[in-house]
Amino acid sequence: MDTSLPFSRLLSEEWPVAELWGCQLGTGARSCVVKEGDDFLEHLVLLRTICLGADARDELHVVAVDSKNASGEHRPVPIAALRSSVLPMISLKALELVPPVTFVLQCGAGPVYLSGQRVTLEDDASSEAEEEELLEEDVGDEDDDGES
């Protein structure tokens, strides 16, 4: 009995879609906006790394995120303070943001590079329907195996 095909099909259909994302903040662009998707699905921005460029001056560079809080207000919140001689890069493990979100270089000239992933989560209704279809197929396969 070969179960590799249904297993690989499950992985490809149930995992969220992730794409690499990045932007540069500096004197030319002090902010970067990650907009909502227009596909009525849930999107997340997973910020993984903030680092200074090689030609960044040895001064304080503060990066803030401006997103809607629980009260519906927009207030920039500093998330990184970098200096090339002390802390030129940080790695973030679990900073998940829901678009629309704006990253702002509050002080410093940059360049500051932000990178991470933009994740699109499946609609629960469609994934539940797909699960039911797969379960029905598996039951049908088991019935066929029992007949031989």
Architecture blueprint of SSEs:
Blueprint: H1 4-14, E1 17-25, E2 31-34, E3 42-52, E4 61-68, E5 74-82, E6 89-97, E7 101-107, E8 112-121, H2 124-147
Antiparallel strand pairs: 1-8, 2-7, 3-6, 3-8, 4-5, 4-7
Description:
By secondary structure, the chain is an alpha+beta fold. It is built from 2 helices and 8 strands, in the order αββββββββα. The strands form 2 sheets. A 4-stranded antiparallel β-sheet has the order 1-8-3-6, with no helix packed on it. A 4-stranded antiparallel β-sheet has the order 2-7-4-5, with no helix packed on it. A hairpin with a 5-residue loop joins strand 4 (61-68) and strand 5 (74-82). The longest helix has 24 residues, at 124-147. The chain is elongated, with a radius of gyration of 22 Å.
